Predict the structure of Chemotaxis protein CheY.
Amino acid sequence: MIRLQFDADGYSVICSADRVMLLAKEFALLRFLYDNRNQVFTREQLLDRVWPLEYPVERTVDDHIYRLRKKLKPWNALRIHTVRGYGYSLTLTGVQRQNHPSLRDQEVQDAVHGLFRKYQLLGQGNSIVALAAQQEQMGFELSPFYQMYTRFVQADILWFLEREDFAPKDRLYWMLLLYIGTAGVTDQKLALCEQVLSSGLLSAEQERELRILNILEAYVENGQPERALERLPLTFAVMERDELDKFVMPVALMEMYMHLAANRMEEARVLSVRLEGMLSEAPYLRELGRYRMMQGFMLLLTGGVNEAERLLDEGLNTLDMAKQELLKIKAVCQIRGFLKRYGAFPALEEKYATQYERLDRDNGLTMHRLALRRWLEQTLSAV
């Protein structure tokens, strides 16, 4: 088992016979993460623990993490993970796992995965990420689905690109959604949706969701809301046939988006009233954040710019509170596309362009976009 020794006098850390020299705050940060390994900490929490009584910015944590990774790179068994939209966690790979009796207790495993399913329904990405980080302490085995879903809500594109232990067909749906959620307005994402649908590589559930929900959004963002509206009867028929109650709110939000994009204000208002009722009974954070955005779009089209901006920001803040990093990126992309298509709002365009630049920097969107698209194209060409 890998074990680090910390020499506080010289700010050095030793692993086996190797010694690495660190700066004082690098040393303190590594020691804190090592002592609390397998736990996830936000940048704010790390600032409080490692920089008490000081006033550095959040970027200070990122810079120190970057330098630690470079200095500790030869120690393959130690990894500092970026938990997208949340913070950082240190893990030791290749370490013998604790022999928790709960690992062999199916009741415990079912109960934990029941929590994951509930948090997924409620849109609580923060709870999903926090629970996933506690595998070692709580003694449960994360299913392949939730291994991927946890990284998906964090928009961790690099993780999906590097995970060769998952077959391409198992990653395909997630990587398609990562691409169409972060690429902004582009003809390629609609074409990729159609290719994936005809590839035969998706599970029945994934193909159904892509056909009745995700591709409709791609039509809207490609300037074809009428084409999306034409396919709504199929969506409703499949929902009724398969009793997809969990799709009711996401589809209603999608339909409102279609009507707004087609400037069908009366239909959008009817759906807005319906969604208000649904959200009063089930105020799921993910859907609430999306609904505030739709309200903002509706006001932009009717001239209420100041109130529209407030609602757009409230929607983004709700998604941020829920740690739905991918949905927040997607939302900012949709806001920018809507502003560009449906009015001249230079101040708002500049504001949300700045927000996108920050999300781009934090999540490596531009850095990984080409590799993500090439992966999708190569996987589909091999069919």
